[in-house]
Amino acid sequence: MKEIILGMDGMTLEDLAAIAREGAAVRLSTESELSITKSRRLVERWLREGRILYGVTTGFGALSNVVIPPRDAELLQKNVLMSHAAGVGDPLAEEIVRAMMALRAKDLARGHSGIRLQTVERLLDLLNLGILPVVPEKGSVGASGDLAPLAHMSLVLIGLGEAFHRGKRMSGADALAQCGLQPLELEAAEGLALVNGTQMTAAVGGLAVHDAERLSSTADLAAAMSLEVLLGSRTEFDPRIHHVRPHPGQGFTADNLRRITQGSEIISYHKDCGRIQDAYTLRCSPQVHGATRDAIAYARRVLETEMNSSTNNPLIFADSEELLLGGNFHGQPVGLALDFLCMAVAELANISERRIERLVNPQLSGLPAFLVKEGGLHSGFMIAQYTAAALVSENKILSHPACVDSIPTSANKEDHVPMSPISARKAREIVQNAEHVIAIELLCGAQGLDLFTNLKPGEGTLAAYRVIRSTVPHLEKDRVLSRDIDAMVGLIREGILLHEVEQVIGELH
User: Fold this and answer.
1) How far is residue 82 from each of residues 73, 101, 152, 158, 367, measured CA to CA in Å?
2) Distance between CA atoms of 312 and 325, rounded to whole angstroms?
3) How many angstroms separate the CA atoms of 148 and 434, rounded?
4) What's the pLDDT score for residue 307?
């Protein structure tokens, strides 16, 4: 089994996906163990000296002016978990919870929180043993971090809350007992250290960015297949066009499309036809897909920066023996990037749906109506286009930015909040909707190839077609299309389609 070591830096989206989806084991680096221990010793010394420390010997947020007597320090940390566990809604998916747990441990591994080493190690024990806290998806505004989700996550450490273990939902205490673990007794500073951070947003958003990257290349495959079926030109992929407008994503997309369609007998056969220019959905695919690719690259940079950051408050700097109060828990950088991602991926679905329309419309494609013979008796892909249109419309609504909203909290102490968790959840939903739209385009493209020519498509197009037909047969007469769409989405999400194409034409950008 793959093992991910959590250190001071260096965590990638690929590491996050391996932990969340492949069950990769996780442990702390030696450097991080030493850093955590050093900060904890400093906190314990300060406590012995009677210093007033925010969240350690005081209340939280608007209650920070209330000094807590030393005898109540441990109760304060338990109370912060219980009081902040006010989330609502459906539980987050298990892969999201795994990602959250790993990212919270990664933040704590940097040694700026004052938490005990054994508490961080216990959090990783839960992750490695498959004890996954039940975390409601709603309730965080993304300032002071993702307080409610992280509180629900942390309750299980102290034997409270609920957890999933081996496919069953149970109390946190029972989940610990099944693995031979005792509930922790939190000490001063630890409750706040567990809940103060952006890890729910980063978990949901990070996996969305990871999936969007794969989808971006898959969209190039869909566009290439549609272009061939619709008798488009390769001229628009000429490197000279993109050299004089050198947006990186545009050039990468053009190169992908050029390589996917390389060797196409279809394009060669009609290159001297009378058509002057292709429709924008074909001709401008490098510009539209490329802009999305650049937005995804920006989102990756922001998310990976966040994954390797210290986002709690206060921050302890053991080398200089200082405790600094700040706002690294504020989710604005991540929320802004994820709202950008929402718009970018929605555009992939927008342009894909318009290509679907061209494929199913006989006045635009020259193919049988809705890509099926005996139209009338059979409806073919008519309603698949409706589905794509519905998903695209939903994405437009979800693309409204969350991070421009703010409702003050904590008696106006927290008077600007970013709503970044909403940005993250929207991004995840949009990516999943777009996967279905592009799956429909690929199904229509494969059907179109079946119907109109015996000429070979490009090398990459042919490879994609063969993967599709190995799973989804030609639509000769009407059948339940949702099964075909789900099967196609599986080929996209599992990376099978991209892998097989890249075996033929090399790695896509």
Assistant:
1) 15, 18, 8, 10, 62
2) 9
3) 29
4) 98
Q: According to the model, what pLDDT value does residue 381 have? A: 98
Task: Give the containing element (helix H, strand E) for 4.
Answer: strand 3-6
The Cα angle at residue 208 between residues 164 and 11, in degrees rounded to 5: 80
Query: How many CB atoms are located within 10 Å of the residue 89 CB?
Result: 11
Question: Any catalytic annotation for residue 386?
Answer: no
Separation between Cα atoms, residue 257 and residue 285, nearest integer Å? 9
SS3 464: helix
Contact 117, 229 (CB under 8 A): no
Structure tokens of 438? 């592009």
What CA–CA distance (Å, rounded) separates 104 from 198? 8
Q: Which residue has the tokens 């850093």?
A: 35
d(CA 466, CA 171): 48
Candidate list 54, 298, 386, 465, residue with the active-site label: 54
pLDDT at 73: 78
Instruction: Tabulate helix, strand, coil % of the chain (nearest 5).
Output: 60, 5, 35
* Paired sense of beta strands 25-28 and 132-133, if any: unpaired
Whether the predicted pLDDT of 277 surpasses 90: no
Inform me whether the pLDDT recorded for 274 exceeds 60.
no
Provide the whole-model pTM: 0.96
Checking if the pLDDT of 507 tops 70, the result is yes
Mean pLDDT score of the chain, rounded to an integer? 94
Q: Is it the case that residue 220 has pLDDT exceeding 60? A: yes
Domains of the chain: 3-197 (1.10.275.10), 204-309+346-505 (1.20.200.10)
Of residues 162 and 57, more confidently modeled = 162
Asked whether 201 and 433 are in contact (CB, 8 A), the reply is no
Letter for the amino acid at 349?
Answer: A
Residue 104 clears pLDDT 60, i.e. is over it: yes
Q: Write the pLDDT tens digit of every residue in 111-164.
A: 999 999 999 999 999 999 999 999 999 999 999 899 999 999 999 999 999 999
Q: Which residues pair with 3 in a beta bridge?
A: 25
The DSSP output letter for 401 is -
CA distance 437 to 440: 5
> Bridge partners of 4?
26
pLDDT of residue 66: 75
19 neighbors 307 (Cβ within 8 angstroms): no
Q: How far apart are CA 108 and CA 310, in angstroms?
A: 7
Which conformational region is residue 127 in: left (phi greater than 0), alpha (psi within -120 to 50 degrees), or beta?
alpha
Which of helix, strand or coil describes residue 25?
strand
Using CA atoms, how far apart are residues 60 and 312, in angstroms rounded to an integer?
13
